[in-house]
Amino acid sequence: MKPIDWTRRWWHGWAPVPLRVRAIVAFGAVSLLLAATLSVVTYSLVRTWMVGDRQNAAVRQAYTDARLVRSRLRSGETDIASLLSGLQVIGMGNALMEHGGQWYSSSVGVGPSLIPASLQSTVTRDHAGWETIATPQGPMLVIGVPIVESSARFYVLESLNDLNHTLIVLATALAVGAGIAAVVGAGTGAVVSRRILQPLQDISAVARDISAGASDARLPASDDPELEALVGSFNQMVDELEERARREARFAADVSHDLRGPLAAFSAAVGVVQRRRQTLPPEVGAAIDILEDQVESFNKLVVDLLEISRFEAGTATLDTSVVDAAAFVSEVLAETGDQITVDCIPNYRPHIDIDRRRMQRVLANLLENANRYAGGASRVVIEPAADGLVAIAFEDHGPGVPAELRESIFTRFDRGRANLDPSLPKGTGLGLALAAQHTKLHGGSIRVEDTSGGGARFVIELPEAP
User: Fold this and answer.
1) Of the chain's two ends, which shows fewer C-beta atoms within 10 Å, N or C?
2) Number of folded domains that form the chain
3) Residue 83 burial (CB count, 10 A)
4) Cβ partners under 8 Å of residue 352, min gap 6
5) Neighbours of 38 (CB within 10 A)
6) Stretch 250-268: mean pLDDT
7) Domain presence at residue 50
8) Is 16 part of any domain?
9) 325 and 301 part of one domain
10) Three-state secondary-structure class, residue 99
């Protein structure tokens, strides 16, 4: 069984997060981890050294004071409290001594209750020892030394508050340093990731420009030897794709153009036969009708292919004029014979700058599509849209367009539901694709959505003329 790479799974679990953010967080986290590790090691070493040094110094001083007390007791010293008060204790320390069953202290308030029982037991067995205890006044080092000759036990209590304060300051400084290191690491990650991702952003920008129709967009030359190969490969790929698209568009245009001659001959021949239909047998007349329909459909397909090839080759141009949107739509409806009301917001008479021939083709395609699949358009609405656009919407009471087909129906040779239902009439699959191309050439867009009654609503948005 293949082991699970948890590191990779964790990293890819960040997929929704931008790559640059992940790089910044990773740099910051690594910097914080390294700085924190170094800080912990440094703090541990310094603390061990400082505590050990302080403890050794206190023990040495305690032994020195114990020898001094022993000497004074040998000489017959009886004022033990004064003796203890005169001892030199490191820091803010105090001395205690048990002698003859009594306790003596160098300071009021310091008594045997501060000495741990375990340390008293050790010193009672004539062994020296020390322990660190916690008191309300802070940590304290307690050192016990037996004075065997005098049957006395000598203790020194030394405050470690100053040492504890120094360690707190050290820990705070190291923590702040680790935080600064994390910020610096994150900043370094931001700079490095920006530099590394810049080529990808350039590629994305060029790809968007090419998709928008800027076929001459290319990546600029790079001085970086590692990026030079990427730039060259990308530009070469774009050149080859552009040349291939040109060849395909040229081929489609040439074929479509060459077919127009034979189609014109077919149409003329069918027209001649139709004029003599009265002299032909009935079964021949029916065949001629079928042939005429097919020739007409074929001719429409060739015209659409020629138009598509112009878009593909980038040679499509506009011959624009400013028209009243409502009047233009009404004119197209009159020419197609569709008896549909044009609804417009009161006092809203927008003008649009369009190529009449192309936009007439767009509206005619939408009306034909509604007649074929939805029983005809029921209403045309002209209304304002966002960003200074004019919306022209064709509504119907048909079955609507499924959500999964609302993008694909605007691509070439996609017939939508007609591909799935043999009973539906088959079109060329180019009408809506041409409508989208014509609208895009005008700087607008086309989409399909649901109506309140469940039908389809094809919306064309065009810039409003000033």
Assistant:
1) N
2) 3
3) 19
4) 322, 323, 325, 328, 390, 462, 463, 464, 465
5) 14
6) 65
7) no
8) no
9) no
10) strand
pLDDT tens for 116-166 read 889 888 888 888 888 888 888 788 888 898 988 778 888 888 888 888 899
* Together in a domain, 393 and 348: yes
Provide the pLDDT for residue 103.
87
For 65-112, strand residue ranges (E) read 93-99, 102-105
Would the pLDDT of 1 be above 50? no
Distance (Å, whole) CA 356 – CA 391: 17
Contact 394, 458 (CB under 8 A): yes
Q: Which letter does DSSP use for residue 160 in this model?
A: -
Backbone φ, ψ for residue 255 (5° rounding) = -65, -45
Q: Which single residue is written with the structure tokens 């009306």?
A: 367
CATH code where residue 265 lies = 1.10.287.130
pTM over 0.85: no
Q: What is the DSSP string of 372-436?
A: HHSSSEEEEEEEEEGGGEEEEEEEE-S----GGGTTGGGSTT--GGGGT-TTSPP--S-HHHHHH
CA angle 149, 150, 152 (to 5 degrees): 115
Q: Which range of residues forms the domain containing residue 81?
A: 77-162
CA dist 460 and 462 (Å) reads 7
Angle 152-156-160 from CA coordinates, rounded to 5°:
165
Residue finishing a domain among 313, 340, 367: 313
- Residues 180-234: pLDDT tens digits? 999 998 888 888 888 777 777 788 888 888 777 676 778 887 777 777 777 788 8
Helix, coil or strand: residue 157? strand
Residue 197 within a domain: no
CATH number at residue 430: 3.30.565.10
CA-wise closest residue to 146 among 130, 125, 131: 125
- 434 lies in the same domain as 301: no
Q: Please tell me whether residues 383 and 299 are part of one structural domain.
A: no
Tell whether 324 and 297 lie within a shared domain: no
Q: What is the CATH number of the domain that holds 92?
A: 3.30.450
273 lies in the same domain as 345:
no
Cβ proximity of 222 and 228 under 8 Å:
yes
Phi-psi region of 199 (alpha: psi -120 to 50; beta: other; left: phi over 0): alpha
Same domain assignment for residues 279 and 327: no
In angstroms, the CA 199 to CA 438 distance is 34
